[in-house]
Amino acid sequence: MASFKAIVIEKGEGGQAVALKDFDEAGLMDGDVTVRPDYSTINYKDGLAITGQAPVVRRFPMIAGVDFAGTVEASLHPDWTAGDKVICNGWGLGETHLGAYAQKARVKGDWLVRLPAGMSTREAMAIGTAGYTAMLSVMALEHAGIAPERGPVIVTGAAGGVGSVAVALLSKLGYTVTASTGRMHEADYLKGLGAAEVIDRSELAGPVKPLAKERWAGGIDSVGSTTLANVLSMTKYGGAVAACGLAGGMDLPTSVAPFILRGVSLLGIDSVMAPLARRREAWKRLENGLDRAKLAAMTTEIPLSAVIGTAPGILAGGVRGRIVVNIG
Prior knowledge:
Blueprint: E1 3-12, E2 15-24, E3 33-41, H1 44-51, E4 62-63, E5 67-75, E6 85-89, E7 105-107, E8 113-114, H2 121-143, E9 153-155, H3 161-172, E10 177-181, H4 187-193, E11 197-200, E12 216-221, H5 225-233, E13 235-243, H6 257-261, E14 265-268, H7 276-289, H8 292-297, E15 299-303, H9 307-315, E16 322-326
Parallel strand pairs: 9-10, 9-12, 10-11, 12-13, 13-14, 15-16
Antiparallel strand pairs: 1-2, 1-4, 3-5, 3-7, 3-16, 5-6, 6-8
Helix pairs in contact: 1-9, 2-3, 2-7
């Protein structure tokens, strides 16, 4: 095809403009694998890029979308041939490299992960970058020695994409999960994913004490700012918290007290540039480590044409679970 449908972000004198439009195939960037995306998803970073609320996009014009799962159409890379099912997320997609909200993508073969045999491309994007990030966070907690017998763990922003998958993953592994959310009407939803307890995020929103009462052996935080600072102050001796998001802000108003008096570890989780070996391990574990019924319960599907109108909701905290985008 000479052109294809894509969500394109452009920048002019009047600011940023976003539209679903025809994109000329000749405008695709360099890469040794051409893919037909089947599905994508909407992540928090996609919401920032489409609305322009943060400087996510580094070049214009840009095709938005930070992840896709699809089928290889052509390849000059030795690891991939036409017909292969692949996943791509991170590596600058939708930021510095033309992204996923398009009927065609050209990327580097070294960026791709083979779709697990027991997973469809739709399921892969129901998981998406958010779910993959949740698994990286779980792996980091395990590496830090935070096993289920150490005590309960907390997941903040629990009704969102990362949080929903994290609750489901941790509960299946045997952890006792406390889910923190600003939407207490989603308590039944979170308990259905495996949360043993649901608390209002206001419990983590007050002034931060250097050390507060010990409550959790570990946690996965997608909020940042005061929420993360309070979680750190409430983490038990020798515990660890995986930080993977900034929905509440990039600041961290804490002290060194949790680290030097309780030996708490703050684990940074980066999904964009994670090495291939870690990516493959995460996706392999997601193949069998995530209850498919729970995944289905947290997932809704929209067409490509609905992405622009849906994106602001994820920034406002109005989206529950995961949204799959059918590229069509």
